[in-house]
Design a protein that fits this description.
Layout lengths: L1 E7 L5 H18 L2 E7 L9 H10 L8 H9 L16 E5 L2 E3 L13 H12 L5 E8 L8 H4 L2 H13 L2 E4 L2 H9 L14 H4 L10 E3 L15 H19 L4 E4 L3 H10 L5 E2 L5 H9 L2 E4 L2 H9 L3 E6 L4 H4 L5 E5 H17 L7 H19 L2
Parallel strand pairs: 1-2, 1-3, 3-5, 4-5, 5-6, 7-8, 7-10, 8-9, 10-11, 11-12
Helix pairs in contact: 1-12, 1-15, 9-14
Length: about 375
């Protein structure tokens, strides 16, 4: 049985769970039964085994203003490695699972991510030639409208993209800007829909219509205000979303789908009269999206899995992660600066659309494309 080390997150982001599940379903089809070893990329000490995974869980909620967890991870990783306990060194395959991989903003840049040096440079390089390295479903995360120049013109970022792509047996990207940035760094890679489209099928989730609308709200319309719109647009988005959600609730039952505690707390404050859904189990989110009539969301992967189950979806956001949804049928993309002007009309449009499943041919063709690449890279 092959041991597969997955660079992902643990108990951190429901979307990452969707992506990882989709990737693992593809790998099982190619490799058969596998042993999955997931490390938390934001605390890469988890690669060293159970103690550090428990330490990650114990300290996750502690204040980290000085990034002490990152500093500790770098310090401990100077110590000798134990190949028998190490999740990467003891694996037969290492996979970077989805997520934004190519970015640069005022806070950070992809060349300085937490996981590349300790996992790829330090560990995989010692296995090079014996253990394949894959980068599947990689994406961009720039302000909406970016052409990626700020990333590829940065020498460190361009070198990181080129080196990581060169080392990987397979790289696939999930959005057109990511593909462009990799191309401008010297490599051509395929653009394929995010592997999260396979998560509902992998978990055997069967869609139905329970009549409610799935709503999801994030301040700014996303994790960050990368374009620097400031508090003005943030307040306008809050006002417009709440007004239109209440108007929509007069016509349909509406549930606020909260992907984390902060979203749940914010939903309780802004729309206290509306039912809320939150769970510690990521699989519950597949189930709730499977039962909605249609979805109006800020979470990209909520949009992707809902559309993969045949739901009509309106996705609003403020960065290039929106382009992930452009590769999936059934999703209308609406940047927040437009949404504050047209959300009422867009909601009326999505209400009027006929529901219909994502064509089986789309999922079959996408799966076949992934499997062809993986079989070529992982053949005995």
């Amino acid at each position: 049985m092959k041991k597969v080390c997955v660079i992902s997150t643990v108990n951190h982001n429901v979307g990452d769970d969707f992506v990882r599940t989709g990737i693992l379903s593809l790998l099982r089809e190619v490799l058969g039964e596998i042993e999955v070893r997931t490390l938390h990329k934001h605390f890469p000490l988890t690669v060293r085994g159970d103690f550090w995974s428990r330490f990650d869980s114990w300290t996750r909620g502690l204040p980290d203003r000085l990034s002490w967890r990152t500093r500790l991870a770098r310090l401990v990783d100077l110590m000798p490695m134990n190949p028998e306990a190490d999740l990467a060194l003891g694996s037969d395959l290492i996979v970077q699972s989805g997520a934004p991989v190519y970015w640069k903003n005022e806070y950070s840049k992809c060349a300085h991510n937490e996981w590349f040096r300790p996992i790829v440079e330090k560990r995989w390089r010692t296995l090079q030639g014996r253990v394949p390295l894959l980068n599947l479903g990689a994406g961009s995360c720039q302000a909406w409208g970016s052409d990626g120049a700020e990333v590829v013109e940065d020498e460190e970022c361009r070198a990181f993209i080129a080196q990581f792509t060169q080392w990987c047996g397979v790289t696939t990207v999930r959005d057109s800007l990511a593909q462009k940035m990799v191309r401008q760094s010297g490599h051509e890679v395929p653009l394929l829909p995010c592997p999260s489209v396979f998560a509902p099928g992998a978990m055997n989730v069967q869609p139905r219509d329970d009549g409610f609308v799935a709503l999801n709200y994030m301040p700014n319309g996303g994790h960050y205000d990368l374009a620097g719109h400031g508090p003005g647009l943030r307040q306008r988005w809050e006002d417009v979303f709440c007004a239109e959600a209440r108007r929509l609730a007069r016509r349909h039952p509406c549930h606020l789908i909260c992907h984390d505690r902060k979203e749940e707390e914010l939903a309780a404050r802004l729309l206290p009269e509306m039912p809320r859904f939150f769970s510690q189990d990521w699989q519950d989110y597949l189930a709730v999206y499977s039962r909605c009539r249609f979805a109006v969301v800020n979470r990209v992967h909520g949009a992707v899995v809902a559309a993969a189950m045949g739901k009509r979806v309106l996705l609003t956001g403020n960065d290039t992660r929106l382009l992930t949804a452009a590769e999936v049928p059934g999703i209308k993309i609406l940047p927040v600066p437009e949404a504050v002007l047209t959300l009422k009309e867009d909601l009326e449009e999505i209400e009027a659309c006929e529901s219909g499943p994502v064509p089986a041919a789309f999922l079959e063709t996408t799966r076949a494309s992934y499997l062809r690449l993986l079989r070529a890279a992982l053949k005995p």
